[in-house]
Amino acid sequence: MSSPIVLSGIELAAELNAATAARAAALPFTPTLATVLVGDDPGSTKYVQMKQRRCREHGLGSRHVHLPADTSTAELVAVLIELGADPAVHGILLQHPLPSQIDERAAFDAIPLLKDVDGTSSAAFAAAALGQPGHRSCTPAGIIRLLDHYDVELAGVDVTIVGRSAILGKPLAAMLTARDATVTVCHSRTRDLAAHTRRAEILVAAAGRPGLITAEMVRPGAVVVDAGFTPGDVAPDAAEVASAITPVPGGVGPMTVAMLLSQTVDAAEAV
Ligand code: NAP
């Protein structure tokens, strides 16, 4: 089979970021994203710093709250409520994963819907599932934006998602269902994963297991989206079977951050 089309998130994210920067500059105040990090996980620290940097580069303000690793749910919720009430903060991002003592759902649900620019609250999930307006979970929204940009048909198409986390697999399934796709969601307890992946016209790998998806698991001609961080959940040989594939890095990752910035400006414009 010929080389697959590369679904580049870098170019599309750059376009989206330029539009976001122009919208931010047109506001009479600085749209501001508050980032909240609990603990010192090096990966999370790096991602938060990158999001703050992207804010600065595109004319958004950023405010950072760093809490100790032993922060309780009540303490974290209090911080999120305070940020939620602060008129100078337009969007709030709570970096995950959170330390195990924290009730993650209680924390995400403490973020007011209008400032939940990362789309992680239960209310944002419900809005996405019901096709109602609101901020979307950024990685799923970025994936759909990328597929739309490359004119990948969604309506009526068989999609298999490998992964069912609250920030990726589940909201993506809800959003694709709202777009009339026929969605199968797989997870660690799925029997015969390959039987489900081989059926998919669009296959989304979102398991965080490098190389999990091999060429034999991909339907010839499928569109493959790899949401895993470097080196990716899709083995290199799978690209030989796919008709289109997202690169890692440079596929889903830049789209996630671009959606976050764009939704922060959406929130600021709505004030
Ligand atoms: P997560 O919370 O760890 O969830 C992983 C999901 O994959 C779970 O539903 C798990 O099943 C399933 N899974 C794990 N091993 C599996 C296997 N062998 N077969 C089938 N399913 C399996 O991870 P996440 O936060 O959703 O992230 C998933 C990946 O996306 C990670 O690589 C992460 O780094 C990446 N990510 C990328 C971005 C980006 O911007 N590029 C953003 C977020 C996440 P169970 O539910 O049964 O445990």
From TrEMBL:
It catalyses: (6R)-5,10-methylene-5,6,7,8-tetrahydrofolate + NADP(+) = (6R)-5,10-methenyltetrahydrofolate + NADPH; (6R)-5,10-methenyltetrahydrofolate + H2O = (6R)-10-formyltetrahydrofolate + H(+). Pathway: One-carbon metabolism; tetrahydrofolate interconversion. Residues 8-118 form the Tetrahydrofolate dehydrogenase/cyclohydrolase catalytic domain. InterPro entries: Aminoacid_DH-like_N_sf, NAD(P)-bd_dom_sf, THF_DH/CycHdrlase, THF_DH/CycHdrlase_cat_dom, THF_DH/CycHdrlase_CS, THF_DH/CycHdrlase_NAD-bd_dom. Residues 137-269 form the Tetrahydrofolate dehydrogenase/cyclohydrolase NAD(P)-binding domain. Pfam families: THF_DHG_CYH, THF_DHG_CYH_C. The keyword Nuclease does not apply. Its EC number is 1.5.1.5, 3.5.4.9. PANTHER family: C-1-TETRAHYDROFOLATE SYNTHASE, CYTOPLASMIC, C-1-TETRAHYDROFOLATE SYNTHASE, CYTOPLASMIC-RELATED. Belongs to the tetrahydrofolate dehydrogenase/cyclohydrolase family. This is Bifunctional protein FolD.
